[in-house]
Design brief:
Elements lengths: L7 H12 L3 H14 L4 E7 L5 E6 L6 H7 L26 H8 L1 E7 L8 E7 L6 E7 L3 E7 L6 H4 L5 H18 L4 E6 L2 E6 L5 H11 L2 H5 L1 E8 L2 E8 L11 E5 L2 E3 L2 H11 L11 E6 L5 E2 L10 E2 L2 H18 L6 H4 L5
Parallel strand pairs: 1-7, 11-13
Antiparallel strand pairs: 1-2, 2-6, 3-4, 3-6, 4-5, 7-8, 9-10, 10-13, 11-12, 14-15
Helix pairs in contact: 1-4, 2-6, 9-10
The structure holds adenosine-5'-diphosphate (ADP) and magnesium ion (MG).
The site of magnesium ion has 5 residues, from α2.
């Protein structure tokens, strides 16, 4: 038996197995990067359900030429520096894995023009072909911001490619990812194009009213019209958002969105806490819909639980659970449906 160190390409491909499950996972990682870069406008272009092309264009801070190659390397990040930074994460990314992983299973071009640098008109592209870890740097004329293009996903990992589903299915997953990210970042505008056609346009929302409209557009006006708005805090915990009134139940987990400090999560503690508040109010087998934002000190929540960062761990899960159950319960009792469906009709497209 001989022990050998994995080549960087193979190590990256193994890591990619954890975060890059399908085209929508690439979209999620790229959107998180754009948001971390302070983007206000993000365009997503996908061809063939993302299997052929995923392009994310943002107007964020960009990356300087000298850093482009490093950005594609594994364990390279601008978001944390030392162990203590892990105690409180303020960005969506921090693992320094996404671009390295994606570029190991697809043909990736990372183009950027940094707002910080003084490079005249030109931006730069780092081109990685997914065959090895070599990167080619070329000038590219572009506005400030970053463009990431991911072509031929899984072209060099046939085992993964086999699991790609029909174009439509992959597209629907991408749309769902964009919905989650857009709900998490109301101040950012999103445009989605599929096979060259605009399929979704989500303008930025600044006021509470605009946010409400956005929830109607993204989730559904039907949800919004039968929902109760809540906004409560106790000490350092705040919960706000929209919950379906007890008359408006559903039989699937659709339209259940929870965000913790701006991150979309699927968390058992949180879902359980919400369900418990509805317990005696819904017929058996029926579940609520909700868009809820939990805000708390980043030190009280660990997001470094799973590579996809969908899961979180609270340092005091019981307190968070009880706060949520209590807050949702109180608002359900008061039963104030604040929106009249007729007022929303004009919002409907
Ligand atoms: P992470 O997000 O965990 O830091 P990534 O592999 O996703 O790791 O990205 C690596 C680095 O590349 C980031 O830390 C950031 O500095 C830079 N980067 C990636 N995407 C963008 C973007 N859209 N705009 C600006 N910088 C970016
Ligand atoms: Mg990232």
């Amino acid at each position: 038996m001989q022990i050998k160190k994995l080549s960087p390409l193979l190590a990256n491909q193994i890591a990619a197995g954890e975060v890059v499950e399908r085209p929508s996972s690439v979209v999620k990682e790229l959107l998180e990067n754009s948001i971390d870069a302070g983007a206000k406008r993000i365009q997503i272009d996908v061809d063939r359900g993302g299997a052929r092309l995923i392009r994310v264009t943002d107007d964020g801070n960009g990356i300087e030429r000298s850093q482009l190659e490093l950005a594609l390397e594994r364990h390279a990040t601008s978001k944390i520096e030392e162990t203590k930074d892990l105690k409180a994460i303020y960005t969506l990314g921090f693992r320094g894995e996404a671009l390295a992983s994606i570029s190991s299973v697809a043909k990736l071009t990372l183009s950027s023009k940094s707002t910080a640098s003084d490079e005249g008109d030109s931006g730069w592209s780092a081109i990685a072909q997914g065959q090895d870890t070599a990167v080619d740097i070329q000038p590219r004329s572009m506005p400030n911001g970053t463009i990431v293009e991911v072509r031929d996903l899984f072209f060099n990992t046939p085992a993964r490619q086999k699991f790609l589903r029909a174009e439509r299915t992959e597209y629907v997953h991408i749309e769902e990812t964009i919905k989650r990210v857009a709900l998490a970042s109301p101040e950012v505008a999103f445009t989605l194009k599929h096979n060259g056609k605009v399929t979704k346009r989500i303008p930025a929302a600044h006021s509470k009213e605009q946010q409400q409209q956005r929830v109607g557009t993204i989730v559904s006006n039907n949800f919004l019209s039968g929902s109760i708005f809540l906004d409560s805090d106790i000490e350092d915990l705040r919960l706000w958002g929209w919950i379906s009134s007890p008359e408006r139940h559903q039989n699937s987990n659709l339209s259940q969105y929870v965000f913790v400090n701006g991150r979309a999560v699927r968390d058992r503690t949180l879902n359980h806490a919400i369900r418990q508040a509805y317990e005696d109010l819904l017929p058996t087998g029926r579940v609520p819909a909700y868009v809820l934002y939990l805000e708390l000190d980043p030190e009280l929540v660990d997001v470094n639980v799973h590579p996809t960062k969908h899961e979180v761990r609270f340092s005091d899960a019981r307190r968070v659970h009880d706060f949520i159950t209590k807050t949702v319960s109180e608002h359900l009792q008061s039963q104030e449906e604040i929106y009249d469906a007729s007022e929303l009709r004009q919002v409907e497209e």
